[in-house]
Amino acid sequence: MELGIIGYIVLFAVSLFVLLKASDWFISAAEKIGLAAGISPFIIGVTIVAFGTSLPELATSIKAVFDGVSGIVAGNVVGSNITNILLVLALTVILGREIILDHDVMDIDMPMLFGSSLILYFVAYDYQVTYLEAFLLLGGLLVFLRSSFQASPREKRKRESVSIQTVGLLILGATLVYFGADYTILSISEISTYAGIDPEVIALTLVALGTSLPEVVVSVNAARKGKAAIAVGNVIGSNIFNSFAVIGIPRLFGSLEISHNMVSWSLPFMIGVTFLFVLVCISKRISRWEGWLMLILYTVYVAQLVDQSLHA
Fold it and tell me: How much is the pTM?
């Protein structure tokens, strides 16, 4: 059913409201469950929160493979990874507060993040992802999870039991985050179509932006509540999950093709952005001016995509 541009604008507003509220429920419940289990706040961000907010990317990619439009999968992953670093972190420090890391991300997390980007590039180098490569990517995800939990400092504190209400809130929050993001993507795509924007630009920017909205909301809210470790861990975990699982799992359901432009420009740019993130985190501090720098780079990235589309 066609809603018309006014209808999709209304749908966008409602979906965004649901997304904002649901993400707040989700992060609160996830933190309570993680802390009750003795898991550090950073690891909560890397695993529970990061993976929960990455569900839209996974669902969108699986549906794309089933619908025979697998070209959107790599664009979704690469675009989301770039958006997570250049936009999510930028808005986190600009709208929230400067981030001080209390966890040594250079030991395991950053090597795994940069490594996942390189592995994804080499997997995509021949413009396709094979079954064997899909299992290789999923194996990389398991290695990351195992390493993170082994390195996680256990909280020496009195543990409290987790109530049924908390678990229910976690499930409800995750569900509404997914549907909120899903309808936000739908409304943005339809509005862009009515406005006559190139579909390729929509796939690489607006779809990636839409599926990254949960990360934006969760990370900004976490930083405002003084939980910056969750915000950074969320970005790291989401990007690793995207590179490994959001490419690997959909490939199990059908073929996955990678475009030439993705291999020659978008993937190398993603690797460069990831390396920049590594350099920024060496000081264990992400300042507002670095946030503004990331936001400028994101604007340049989007402008380049638009320019490529116009001259295609």
Answer: 0.78
